[in-house]
Amino acid sequence: MTEKLTIHKKISLTNLYFNRFLAIRYTTAFFLFLNLYWAIFLIGSLSIIALLPISLFVLGILTTWEQIKLYRNHCNKLPYARLFYQGLAIVLIALIMTLYTPLYHFFYPFLKQTQEAANVLIVLLTVSLIIVLLMLRKLNKIQHNQDLHFKRIQAYEEFIN
Questions:
Q1: CA dihedral 117, 118, 120, 126 (to 10 degrees)
Q2: pLDDT at site 72
Q3: What pTM, to 2 d.p., does this model score?
Q4: pLDDT, tens digit, for every residue of 31-59?
């Protein structure tokens, strides 16, 4: 009976450590598909800039793989996730800066350059940038064990021991 309890405790701790990255996993999936759709539209428009979302998509796949490996080997440092979100931040800032310039058609050849389209894009890009910055902050807190989830895990470990 104590062996089953020990296995249960070990599995519970493994799941808690894995769930520590839950928000990052879902956000990564969101941006992964967002870049995939952007790449598909750019490829359909025969734009060479499609290489940008494709490279972000590949980096997102590496980030996803890194997250999957966390279930077996817990680690605080996620270099691919950090690189993915830093790259996204740079791209989003660049897209916001070029939104009201002639470069608009370079990044969005499948959209008309109207004020309404620009307003929607500025809102979407700004919200995306805020989310990316929040994920970078979360990654930093996790790396330094300053996140709330880690404190809960420590309390649980004290409780079961």
A1: 160
A2: 76
A3: 0.87
A4: 999 999 999 999 999 999 999 999 999 99
